[in-house]
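Worked example 2:
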Amino acid sequence: MTKQKQAVSNRWRRTQARIGRTHARAANIRRDTLHKATTALAQQHKVITVETLNVTGMRTKGGPRKRGLNRAIADAALAEIRRMLTYKTIWYGSSLIEADRWYPASKTCPACGRRKPNLTLTDRTFVCEHCGVVIDRDLNAAINLARLSETQPGQQSPAGSGPVAGRGATHETEPAQSGDAAGCETSTPHGTTGSGHTGTAPPQGEAA
């Protein structure tokens, strides 16, 4: 005997409509927040540095125990942030530097420039065995990324630790491609100077 499909009730339709409206509102709030944050960065800083992390690879391993972290990574919309910054830095005359996934931002000492290859993801504190510096892992990465944006390839970093751009990397960072600024973007260009660049940081300027 073939089972007949149960008819959908009006209450079920109303519930699904409410769920859809809730998801749409959450998406609009997220998009608005990203636009405001990226516009402020592009307007207030001459140089912005981002990491082109392998987000898909970060979410692949770990199984069920990483579900919460994977949801948080997906909710952060890291690729969308980089996409917005790509064209907004052109709009507002700032520059975007992309450090590829091989750049050792967390593994490089901010004081002496030595690299620590055995730093694992579970190590939340960076301890330099050469000069004794102890610093938070994320803060250390932020410092090294800021120095990357302030230094041209071949120039010396503020700490005098040698060329910063690409130090320890196995692949050269590719220049970012400009994003599509047309369409339904909530931010519009103002005061574009035409001097925006992507992929190369000037020697001077404030880094984000």
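Strands lie at 47-52, 95-100, 125-127, 134-136, 197-198. Helices lie at 10-44, 55-60, 67-76, 78-91, 137-150.
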